[in-house]
Amino acid sequence: MDHIKNVLRRYFLGGGKVLARFRNYNIALFALAFSSMALALALVFFNIVEQVSADFVRRHAVSSANAFSVHVGSQVTLVSRAANSRSVINWLSDENNDEKKLLAYEKLLEIIAELYSDNLYISFGKSLNEYRISIDLSPDDIRPFSVLDENNPNDAWFFYCAASNKNYTLTIGIDHLLQRKRVWLNYEVVQDDVLLGIISTGLEFSHVARELFGHYDRIDMRGFIIDKNGLIHMDSSLLGDDDFLHHDFEAKIENKIADPIFLAALRAHLDGVDGYFGGKSENAVIHLSSGPYHGATIVPIRFTDWSVLILYGASSLLGISAFLPVFAVMLLLLLLFALGTSAISYRLIFSPLEQLVHSLARLKERKEENIYGVERDDEFGDLSNTIQDLFTKAHYDALTGIHNRRFMETNLKYIMDLLSRFDGVMSVLMLDVDYFKKYNDTYGHEQGDACLKLVAQALSGSIIRANDFIARYGGEEFIAVLPNTDEAGARLIAQKLLESVQALNIPHANNAAAPYVTVSIGVTTGTVTHLQDWTDYVKRADEALYMSKQNGRNRHTYLDFTNE
Questions:
Q1: Going by C-beta distance under 8 Å and a sequence separation of 6 or more, which residues neighbour residue 378?
Q2: How far apart, in whole angstroms, are the C-alpha atoms of residue 119 and residue 265?
Q3: Which runs of consecutive H residues, i.e. helices, occur in 365-461?
Q4: The pTM is what?
Q5: Where are the beta strands (DSSP E) in 209-324?
Q6: What is the mean pLDDT of each run of 10 residues along the chain (564 residues)?
Q7: Which domains does the chain have, with CATH numbers?
Q8: How many other β-carbons are positioned within 10 Å of the β-carbon of residue 544?
């Protein structure tokens, strides 16, 4: 750890290669930008107030987009809870099981209580049956009210969501229950990369729409919400009308404004849409050369691939258009400085750092053995090599090469914390090499170490799921942790581990269970809660291991997990 601190101290306070290049480039760019900006600021100093009006329009657009984002984000969070609920997943996996339906119904009512809408719609991926869940329906009333049809345009939302590469989609369609247009949030329910179904809810936009477009009632201002294809989903000029929410997928913003500068900027913005906008999406201010409007602002909406577009006339700018050339120069200088600094920073610092962080994450998930930068001859190389050395020592057993007890304790706590949030199931296996002391006495400790290495490799090779792992607990004892694994799955893994060690066929003359090296295994499975401690599972697995030894070894014994 001290070595890492020294490396970081030399990087940030010293004169390393990366820091020196970054600092020199920034000084040169800053000197150029500062001298140019000083001249520009002198020209616009007495007219600076003029730009407040344009900034107000942009800020209002950002505020409108944020209001939309907060609404969508809160609903996505709630529906995500439902989609990841174990009870909902269980029902979608077994549609005709009334007991599972009841448990899912109770969970969904909790979600509905916090939603803006009073209804949720559940569509099953296998049967294509669609159910309505509402507070005014009892569990006995919950029956399929329709079967989705790929050839029915009204059901296109389901197949569009299922074919997308996103967790959820937003569409606009008719709520046949309320007989009006609504924005729909459609969220996938997935288990083991298999689509079980989709949960849908209508987002209540009446109050959000008033908040978004209530200020755009003047003739010189108009607001739209458009998607990544330029299709208009909301139009402030239709606020209060039934057509305020467009759902015919024919009205495009290009047909409303013919200004070539606007169309070029709009196309550049739309072409840059890749997935849903994150928290740092940039907005755009466009000066129009023709038409009734003098300017436009485009602001992306987080959690969606939609954007808020505001058009404003000359009176909204309070005469700032006279200073647009100078203002454009300032923006250009700022843009050049930002782009130059960003490009250099990314190339010298942030790109290597991003790759380092990414490789560390993959190393933690056991998807890679090395981290980025170990071959570099600069500070990143020093840091990468130091981290890799410390990571190996901290998480891997020096003798066997598999995970050690420290890794097991840390990750078992982390896994239990995640599983306890939705009552997930976990299995823990305790393994012990049979009569290992006699093996050491017979063949020597050097051969005993070689035996442990072979056993560890066999056990590790039998654990193939990404989130499962096996670690050396101490001496000849090993621990296997299997999140989201029930009793049946744990028993299969235990048998597989027994057979993998037997297949080594390592001679053991003093093994009363077999003429070769074997292991005994204790297995326990339980539903994880926040009241449990990881040691409870290890203790229970150890009790099961003791029973395996008492019953002749070279076997596995299962005990249900209890908190007693």
A1: 16, 17, 18
A2: 40
A3: 379-395, 405-419, 436-443, 445-461
A4: 0.44
A5: 221-226, 232-235, 284-287, 295-300, 307-312
A6: 46 49 63 66 50 62 74 85 91 91 90 83 91 87 89 86 86 67 85 90 67 59 81 75 56 80 82 71 73 78 81 60 57 64 64 69 60 72 70 77 89 90 93 93 92 92 89 92 94 94 92 92 93 92 94 94 65
A7: 2-49+335-388 (no CATH), 84-204 (3.30.450.20), 396-560 (3.30.70.270)
A8: 23
